[in-house]
Design goal:
heterodimer, A: 293 residues, mainly alpha, MetI-like fold, 2 domains, two-stranded antiparallel ribbon, 2 strands, B: 290 residues, 69% helix, globular
Chain lengths: 293, 290
């Protein structure tokens, strides 16, 4: 072997990994430690500095109704969006899973929603859901689904649905594209065999398509789920959490505590709670579904 | 053509066009004058197109404006957005370069060098992708304040680089894994060093994969909201963050907002069409190969 044993050319992974490890440590481990430290402190507006408060921020969580509200909102948002995107995504993917010449073009069109900044999507749905001149409100009023005196985003019972509409519109195509790629790569023989055996389409879907797609579905759910749980952009631009706490997500609550109410310690505590929930749930999911990278 | 096939094509077109409708509608808003935006029922096809919104947002006079040139915009505010578009481009390009350079090195090591704790290392990289942005942005704000990085290009570029690293590392690793190890081995027998193999063989052979990674990093930086919102104040602002500033005390400048939105989608859409082949692999961080 003619390998040179100097630092840059060695077989040791460190030189290759060094840039990555150094930035990840500085930008993820350090903030994490800082956050934990901050969660045991609070900014005192009277003394104009951080003071130690022990476990106060953590015990405050239990009594804070707004925290429990935001947790409920985040979980509802997560579950509803994930279910609808999953079902709709699978249905549309199966619809587009055919060798039609125009379907390539339709697939390309669907890609478009993925490149739009969510904040801009939020602003545009704000326009379309405007009670006076919004096109979505207009259609819903005409169809008699919505009372014309009900502003979608300013009514507690419909605000979350209004935000979810933007979310689902933007990310269902994400699911469609992933599922479509999965469906297209399935082997044809089992399906032909099932057809010959006289299986109906529900049996084929349930016994063949779903099991064969389980890995693809698991990965799509994992990646979308991580992002859904930390929803911020849509609620920030569309409702700022209101009316009341009906669209108050955990990320938004944490951000507002820090930057609007100068509760630095409590804001950090809330962001840690979000982090802990996402890390535990996602890692459990990876273990259970045996997803490998 | 059977009836069933016909039905499928028609349904597919209806579904996809429904999804496309909002984009179409915003584009019409960008070309409408201030009055037509507020018309009830909303104008879908019958409006007089004007370039006034684009002229105001980008500060250019197209000079061949068709239709009415009325530029009545509700509210005050500065809607001249060309500098903000420049900010967004600088941040996106800078952070894409940073992420791709760091990630190619790391991905090569993870794909080729066997070392203890390799799987744990990959899991750690993946878990940084799970961190809620708010859990990073809050401490980063205080750290940036200390180091005077708030409101600077370098600060935002750094944070977007970090944000994109897990995706870039895992995606590039999957592309490097596709290249058979025999190629490395035969080059090594010929006396090449790892570095030479990396530069002369691996990088050129995974050009397509690197391009796809770069495009995705670019798009995620282009559309990112929370970090820029938190880590900038008055200096630079990217397009997504500035979009909420169109809301003024007198009303929202919807036409200008839509013009900016429409213009900001175009570059990202062109890029993503160029890497369609690797799109799904990219969206799933390299875990699904098309």
């Amino acid at each position: 072997m003619l390998k040179k044993r100097n630092w840059v050319l060695s077989d040791h992974p460190l030189p290759w990994l060094f840039p990555l490890v150094s930035v990840l440590v500085v930008f993820t481990i350090y903030p994490l430690i800082y956050n934990i430290w901050l969660s045991f402190h609070e900014y005192s507006t009277r003394k104009r500095r951080l003071i130690e408060v022990g476990w106060d921020n953590w015990s405050q969580l239990l009594e804070d109704q707004r925290f429990w509200d935001s947790l409920t909102v985040t979980f509802s948002y997560f579950i509803i969006a994930l279910l609808i995107e999953l079902v709709l995504g699978l249905a549309i993917a199966m619809l587009l899973d055919a060798d039609e010449p125009t379907f390539k073009f339709l697939r390309g069109l669907l890609t478009m929603t993925l490149v739009i900044p969510p904040a801009i999507t939020g602003m545009m749905f704000l326009l379309m859901e405007d009670p006076q001149f919004g096109v979505i409100s207009f259609v819903l009023n005409e169809l008699g689904i919505l009372d014309s005196t009900t502003p979608i985003l300013a009514t507690p019972s419909t605000a979350l649905a209004g935000v979810l509409l933007a979310e689902i519109w933007q990310w269902t195509p994400f699911m469609v594209l992933i599922f479509l790629a999965g469906l297209r790569s399935l082997p044809q023989e089992p399906f032909e065999a099932a057809m010959i055996d006289g299986a109906n389409s529900w049996q084929i879907f349930n016994k063949l398509t779903l099991p064969m797609m389980s890995k693809v579905i698991a990965i799509a759910v994992l990646i979308r789920g991580i992002d859904l749980f930390r929803v911020f952009d849509y609620v920030f631009v569309m409702t700022s959490g209101g009316p009341g706490t009906s669209t108050y997500s955990l990320s938004l609550y944490s951000w507002q505590q820090t930057f609007s109410f100068v509760k630095w310690g409590y804001g950090a505590t809330l962001s840690l709670v979000t982090l802990i929930i996402v890390l535990i749930t996602a890692n459990l999911f990876i273990k259970i579904m045996r997803i490998k990278w | 053509m059977t009836f069933k096939r016909m039905l499928r094509i028609i349904t597919a077109w209806i579904v996809v066009l429904t999804f496309f409708f909002p984009i179409y509608y915003w584009t019409t808003v960008a070309f409408k004058n201030a009055k037509e935006i507020f018309d009830v029922p909303p104008r879908i096809l019958d409006f007089t197109p004007t370039l006034a919104n684009f002229e105001k947002v980008f500060g250019i006079s197209f000079g061949f404006g068709f239709g009415s040139q009325a530029t009545v915009t509700p509210g005050g505010g500065n809607f001249y957005m060309a500098p903000r578009l420049w900010d967004t481009i600088v941040v996106a390009v800078g952070s894409t370069l940073g992420a791709v350079v760091i990630a190619t090195l790391a991905a090569y090591a993870l794909s080729r060098i066997r070392f203890r704790g390799r799987h744990q290392f990959v899991a750690w990289v993946l878990s940084t992708r799970m961190m809620p942005p708010v859990a990073v942005a809050v401490p980063m704000f205080f750290i940036y304040k200390e180091f005077r990085l708030l409101d600077t290009y370098i600060g935002v570029i750094l944070i977007h680089t970090i944000m994109n690293l897990p995706l870039a590392v895992l995606l590039l690793k999957s592309f490097f894994d596709d290249i058979p190890h025999e190629i490395d081995e035969s080059a090594m027998i010929d006396g090449s060093t790892r570095w030479q193999i990396f530069v002369r063989l691996i990088l050129p052979m995974s050009r397509g994969g690197i391009a796809a990674t770069a495009v995705l990093c670019f798009i995620f930086s282009w559309t990112e909201f929370l970090f820029v919102l938190t880590l900038t104040q008055t200096g630079l602002k990217t397009v997504p963050v500035v979009s909420s500033s169109f809301v003024t005390s007198i009303g929202t400048a919807w036409g200008n907002m839509a013009a900016l939105g429409a213009a900001s989608i175009i570059p990202a859409f062109i890029f993503i069409l160029l890497v369609q082949k690797h799109l799904v692999r990219g969206l799933t961080m390299g875990s699904l190969k098309q």
